[in-house]
Design a protein that fits this description.
The chain is α+β, with helices and mostly antiparallel strands. The protein is built from 5 helices and 13 strands. The chain folds into 3 domains: about 140 residues, Rossmann fold (3-Layer(aba) Sandwich), CATH 3.40.50; about 70 residues, Dna Ligase, domain 1; about 45 residues, no CATH class. About 25% of the residues lie in helices and about 25% in strands.
Length: about 290
């Protein structure tokens, strides 16, 4: 049987795949919470795995992109035993279509054992937003709403009313003067300008806070050990519905248990919720 010591990260060299300042929130938490010795690879380019500004399309899923970053970081730092990367995803909420949803993951992989752990954070408190404008005044009003210049903006040209970074693209806009000039150029070139929040971490304090929360979740996950083999990552991976109705006893859609499964030894633990019966309002028989 393995022990917690088999998976200790204390003092081990880790490489963090970032070029946008994520080390400001990730490094202190993982060094302080797990004892890692985190380094940054020299001249590391994460834009090759996809950009929010669309000039490079992300291939695969959010997790695929984080894993690709870790592989590249290991190549850049052959002495590193642990690789770390984060990836964000933004778009309309799947249920509340009027709201935007931001999802952050921070992935850590132990090269020696193959152990992969992930921290997650999903939040409606994202400033992900965009607008198509035909005047500088409209662009400035949008920038004011999203907290510019503390939060960055990107100006993109348009084609058939869609963002067209191949026609025009400006990042790292730091002043109203630069914003005004960029919007004017995009309008002159394309007839309209697409202005959106810069979702790169170093230009988006709201996103940086979400990455910090995902890192906290990674530390929590790393400290949650399987009771059988002591492998880290023993967290809730499944939620089971079916709590019985307090009136008729039929299964409802209410949560009845949470399940944790070890990815190492496959030990499974099902923990029932504290409630013994569900409100009849959630029962499809009593409240069809």
């Amino acid at each position: 049987m393995s022990s917690a010591a088999d998976y200790s990260l204390k003092g081990r060299r880790a490489v963090l795949a970032t070029m946008h300042g994520k080390e400001r929130v990730i490094r202190p938490l993982l060094e302080g919470g797990l004892g890692l010795d985190i380094r940054l690879p020299d001249a590391f380019d994460t834009d090759r795995f996809g950009t929010f500004s669309r000039e490079i399309k992300r291939m695969g899923s959010q997790l695929d992109a984080a894993r690709q970053k870790i592989i590249a970081a290991f190549d850049a730092d052959p002495d590193a035993e642990v690789g770390i990367a984060s990836e964000g995803s933004f778009g309309p909420h799947p249920y509340f279509f009027f709201a935007a949803l931001g999802c952050e993951i921070v992935v850590m992989r132990d090269r020696r054992s193959g152990l992969e752990l992930m921290g997650r954070h999903a939040d409606l408190r994202t400033n992900f937003a965009h607008v198509t404008v035909q005047s500088v005044d409209e662009a400035v009003a949008f920038a004011d709403r999203i907290g510019f210049p503390a939060h960055g903006v990107i100006v993109i040209g348009t084609s058939d009313s869609n963002p067209a970074p191949g026609a025009y693209l400006r990042k790292d806009i730091l002043t109203l003067e630069h914003l005004s000039a960029s919007v004017s150029e995009a309008i002159a070139t394309c007839g309209a300008a697409h202005v959106e929040t810069d979702m790169r971490a170093h230009r988006n304090p709201t996103r940086m806070r979400a990455i910090k929360r995902a890192t906290v979740d990674l530390v929590r996950t790393s400290r949650s050990l399987c009771p059988r083999c002591a492998r880290p990552g023993f967290i809730v991976s499944e939620k089971l519905a079916g709590l019985p109705c307090s009136w008729c006893g039929a299964a409802t859609n209410a949560l009845r248990a949470e399940v944790s499964v070890c990815t190492g030894c496959q030990y499974r633990c099902e923990n029932p919720v504290s409630l013994v019966a569900a409100d009849p309002g959630s029962c499809p028989s009593c409240n069809p």
